[in-house]
Automatic annotation (TrEMBL):
Pathway: Carbohydrate degradation; pentose phosphate pathway; D-glyceraldehyde 3-phosphate and beta-D-fructose 6-phosphate from D-ribose 5-phosphate and D-xylulose 5-phosphate (non-oxidative stage): step 2/3. It catalyses: D-sedoheptulose 7-phosphate + D-glyceraldehyde 3-phosphate = D-erythrose 4-phosphate + beta-D-fructose 6-phosphate. PROSITE patterns: TRANSALDOLASE_2. This is Transaldolase. The keyword Hydrolase does not apply. GO terms for biological process: carbohydrate metabolic process; pentose-phosphate shunt. Keywords: Pentose shunt, Schiff base, Transferase. It comes from the Eukaryota. CDD domains: Transaldolase_TalAB. Belongs to the transaldolase family. Type 1 subfamily. One of its GO terms (molecular function) is transaldolase activity. It comes from Fistulifera solaris. Catalyzes the rate-limiting step of the non-oxidative phase in the pentose phosphate pathway. Catalyzes the reversible conversion of sedheptulose-7-phosphate and D-glyceraldehyde 3-phosphate into erythrose-4-phosphate and beta-D-fructose 6-phosphate.
Length: 344
């Protein structure tokens, strides 16, 4: 794929590190070859799609994952979950061979409220990556930004395992992640906008600078820079602030943030456009954001503040449910595969 040096994609990549939000190896390869995409993020939906696609490349990954799990699981009850993790790692390894930077792999979302189990699963994922020759420095373990997920990330970070806290819909979540040492967060401006549109009964679009998702992401970015947090802000999940035809609104409104992960259809729009991109977030021009509180948030403070944020509470729960649904689809397919293998 040839992309002009004057395209919006090239301009954006000069100020923000770009990741592709996809599990499609061919699509990832096409964009990585442009030189403007360095990282890739996956989630349970992408792993499920790969596992259920029937494509020979992914079918081989599934077969290998099941064989690995049958051979290495410590008990029969662990075979399916180990196979799911191995499939995610197999996909991640294939992606790591294409992009030079990070790959993100998510812990089973059903563990979103289990700190110790999330830590154990994160370590297992890293160990499997290392078996395949991918160093832990290139892997981000994705965890939902629940209280338990944030503490699990803190535990993993203490052992040198970098984490990507996802499903961030509230500034409170973002601040807690930074306070507890998360390497990176993934706020979802598009889904934040969705919630506010429904809540207010809005049918008309808004200017990007008034888009609640954009406002939230800017506050997170500025808070981190104001108060000395090294946590990276990597927005994901995009919507057109002004409505159909303005699909790049949120992306362009956050130009200059640390990182972004963007799906292929929006990367294509950026690649085809020659319009100028203005840098709107810059560590040299930080807006002051008041300190939330001295010291780290306690569990009680976090739960209370998140509970008082309707968008954060609703969207976090919705996101976890959606990822669990995809994981359960894949689990059913893997279970059938395991039974077939045991019968043959």
């Amino acid at each position: 794929m040839q992309v002009s040096e004057t395209s919006q994609l090239a301009q954006l990549a000069s100020m923000t590190t770009l990741s592709i939000d996809s599990g499609d190896l061919q699509v990832i390869r096409e964009y990585a070859e442009t030189g403007y995409i360095t990282d890739a993020t996956t989630n349970p939906l992408f792993v499920s799609q790969a596992g259920l696609s029937g494509d020979p490349v992914y079918a081989e990954m599934v077969d290998q994952a099941v064989q690995y799990a049958v051979q290495h699981a410590e008990s029969k009850s662990e075979i399916v979950t180990l196979a799911i993790d191995r499939l995610a790692v197999n996909l991640g390894k294939a992606i790591a061979d294409i992009v030079p930077g990070y790959i993100s792999t998510e812990v089973d979302p059903r563990l979103s409220f289990q700190r110790e189990a999330s830590v154990a699963r994160g370590k297992r994922i890293i160990a499997m990556y290392e078996e395949l020759g991918v160093p832990k420095e290139r892997v981000l373990i994705k965890l939902a930004a629940t209280w338990e997920g944030i503490l699990a990330a803190s535990d993993l970070e203490a052992e040198g395992i970098q984490c990507n806290l996802t499903l961030i819909f509230s500034v409170v979540q973002a601040i807690a992640c930074a306070q507890y040492g998360a390497h990176l967060i993934s706020p979802f401006p598009g889904r934040i906008l969705d919630w506010h549109k429904i809540k207010q009964g809005r049918t008309e679009g808004v200017a990007p600078e008034q888009d609640e998702g954009v406002v939230a992401c800017k506050e997170m970015y500025n808070y981190f820079k104001c108060h000395g947090h090294d946590t990276i802000c990597m927005p994901a999940s995009w919507r057109p602030s002004r409505g159909v035809g303005y699909e790049l609104d949120e992306i362009l409104a956050l130009a200059g943030t640390d990182r972004m992960t963007i799906p292929a259809p929006l990367l294509e729009k950026l690649a085809l456009s020659q319009e100028p991109v203005m840098r709107l977030l810059d560590p040299a021009r930080i807006q002051n954001v008041p300190l939330l509180a001295e010291g780290k948030m306690t569990e009680q403070e976090f739960r209370y503040r998140l509970n008082m944020d309707g968008c954060g509470t609703d969207k976090l729960a919705e996101g976890i449910r959606a990822f669990i649904a995809e994981t359960e689809k894949l689990e059913a397919a893997i279970t059938a595969k395991v039974k077939d293998m045991q019968l043959s």
